[in-house]
Design brief:
binds pyridoxal-5'-phosphate, Aspartate Aminotransferase, domain 1, disordered N terminus, Aspartate Aminotransferase, domain 2, alpha+beta, 4-stranded mixed beta sheet
Length: 473
């Protein structure tokens, strides 16, 4: 049997002590722990590599149910290290795993001397287009993927391709990242803000319908935190009113939406045009800025492509007013290394979300993320809500308390767009967006990335509950 072959642990209550002359185990992944029977030991539920025969040959044990480790042993140190290094987003392990391939990919771009556009960008777009198809899905048509410099530009270019300009109105949620609204203002159009649902965090379609006027030129739903907005209703409104839909898919690449009739579509390909971001912390992130648009509409794709290249397809021929927004070849090469792993990255996020759910589901006063029945969730963020009525500053105090314990959290977003100083001139009253206001003071995003261990999550939740109990008294 090769050294690395998995073997089944005969004795799941394997006792490993650093003081009995045996080498301590290599901890591969720790899933959970509790205090041991005496004050110096911990019971750890982990996957380890351990010496299992006379020759001290290390063999992989896939699953050790309990391991008693003396404090001070390697495994305790590993545990300590992993607990002291909890990050909101941790890219280091992923980058280490893919480092050789990434280095090679970057090297090839350097050797090619083609830093803008070229075959890396073309290949990445073709591969992403392929990836966006749903295996076995009804629509096997390949979408056009148009690369650009970042997710904000993607939104702006999509709106420009649809002809949005001064005098037009564009409907967006009040609870979103600033880019969604910023680009509308930059084009001289008016952002028309509408409220979101307090359970899904996504745009309220009734409010969308009520906000439509003769000037409405586009609707921009944001598939916030990783799951799709109610696209069936939105597309019904879009068709009835003949208003295009630009889906902001920056946080939900690969999420799938299934309408009531059982027809599935990929986030970003349900509306007229979709946009995304490859910001490093996104589910598919590059090592700088990057973005893209997707659409099945050939003419729209051609317009978006031209706009991202100074408004022309041919050098020095400009039929549209455009901008310089291109995906660097090095970023495309890095994205090509990561793209084949995207499903695996999303699965790791979904697994981490399930573990958080399990650990938090019975905690009174805290809501775990609601799952939209028509959408899959790719968990760009795992965002809980701290119930109102438990004190105004509870959420912020909780975040501060966790920070003292070395546990980072995020508040996405601390206020609705209607309250942002730069957008006060839109003239909205604070109470026009009750759900957005409520969310802005109650949401808390917990660390979420592909490398979280169950031990880290157990620790995060244990500290969260401890602070919550203390602060909500
Ligand atoms: C919802 C949403 N839209 C747009 C963007 C903009 O993407 P980028 O940072 O690549 O410009 C982001 C980035 O965080 C986002 O979260």
């Amino acid at each position: 049997m090769p050294n690395d072959a998995p073997i089944v642990a005969k004795d799941p209550y394997l006792e490993l002590r650093s003081d009995i002359g045996r080498k301590p185990p290599d901890v591969i992944e720790i899933w959970g722990e509790r205090r041991g029977m005496d004050s110096t030991s911990r019971v750890v539920w982990a996957k380890v590599r351990v010496a299992t025969n006379k020759n001290n040959v290390r063999k992989k044990i896939d699953f050790v149910e309990f391991m008693i480790a003396k404090v001070g042993s390697v495994s305790s140190l590993t545990m300590k290290d992993s607990l002291e290094n909890i990050k909101m987003v941790d890219l280091s392990a992923m980058n280490t795993r893919l480092r050789t391939e990434i280095d090679d990919a970057i090297g090839q771009v350097i050797d090619s001397e083609r830093f803008i556009g070229g075959k890396e960008v073309e290949k990445f777009c073709a591969e992403l287009s392929d990836k966006l198809k749903i295996e076995g899905g009804e629509n096997q048509e390949k979408p056009f993927v148009i690369p650009c410099a970042n997710g904000t530009d993607a939104l702006q270019i999509a709106l420009m391709a649809l002809g949005v300009g001064p005098g037009d109105e564009v409907i967006t949620p009040a609870f979103t990242f600033i880019s969604t609204v910023e680009v509308v203002a930059l084009l001289g159009a008016k952002p028309v803000l509408v409220d979101v649902h307090s359970d899904t965090f996504n745009i309220d379609c009734k409010a969308v319908e009520a906000a439509i006027t003769k000037k409405t030129k586009a609707i921009v739903p944001v598939h916030l935190f990783g799951q799709c907005a109610d696209m069936e209703t939105l597309m019904e409104i879009s068709k009835r009113k003949n208003i295009p839909v630009v889906e902001d898919t920056a946080q939900s690449l690969m999420s799938i939406y299934c309408n009531g009739g059982g027809v599935s579509g990929r986030a970003g390909l349900l509306g007229t045009i979709g946009t995304t971001s490859f910001f490093p912390s996104k589910n598919l992130g590059c090592m700088g800025d990057g973005g893209a648009m997707f659409t099945f509409d050939k003419e729209l794709a051609a317009a978006a492509h031209a706009i991202s290249n100074h408004g022309g397809q041919r050098r020095y021929h400009h039929h549209l007013v455009g901008l310089n927004s291109r995906l660097d070849s090095i970023q495309a090469a890095i994205l090509r290394v990561k793209l084949p792993h995207l499903d695996e990255f999303n699965l790791a996020r979904q697994k981490a979300a399930r573990i958080y759910d399990e650990l938090l589901k019975d905690v009174e006063g805290i809501s775990i993320p609601f799952r939209e029945i028509n959408s899959t969730h790719v968990f760009h963020q795992y965002t809980i809500k701290i119930h109102e009525g438990l004190g105004n500053d509870l959420r912020d105090d909780l975040s501060e308390g966790l920070k003292k314990d070395g546990i980072p959290t995020g508040i996405y977003y601390p206020m609705g767009i209607h309250q942002q100083p730069a957008y006060l001139s839109l003239g909205y009253k604070t109470d026009e967006f009750p759900n957005t206001n409520k969310l802005a003071s109650t949401v808390l995003s917990l660390p979420m990335h592909t490398e979280l261990t169950t031990l880290q999550q157990t620790r995060i939740v244990e500290r969260l509950i401890s602070w919550f109990t203390l602060l909500s008294k």
